[in-house]
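>> received
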Amino acid sequence: REMSQLSQLSHELKIPCVVSSSGPLKSYLEKKYPEAKFIGYIQDKEMSDLYASATIFALTSEPDAEGEGLVVFEAMAAGKPVVCSNIHSLRDDIIDGKNGFYCKSYEEFKKKLGHLWNDESLQQSFSKEGLKKAREKDVYKSVDKIVNVYKSLAK
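>> returned
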């Protein structure tokens, strides 16, 4: 679903899109949305280059799909403005309109992504505020919480 939504948004808004995911719809979507670039799975060591080349980081995952949403904080730490879907684990961290956009519907995502794409000063503001939030977020603390949950489930 995520690949399909990002591809459709790229097509509708005429925004270049790089999708670093793969799935059963990849070849279908490559044909339907030739303007989107599908690069498949990315190794961790390649992520910094991908973040560096991006203008905006957009995440259209299902509300429960991203766990702690660490990928969003990686993008923020790389200085990228963020637009994300209604991901439960991010609702307290993405302050809508201050350090990114938090969207509850496809139409809202489309509107906010288009607005951010066309507003360089807003991109800079989100980048600055996102860097602050990424510094506040202790990734190791988040990982420790996840490990503790798994340990408690294993008992």
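>> The two ends are 34 Å apart (CA to CA).
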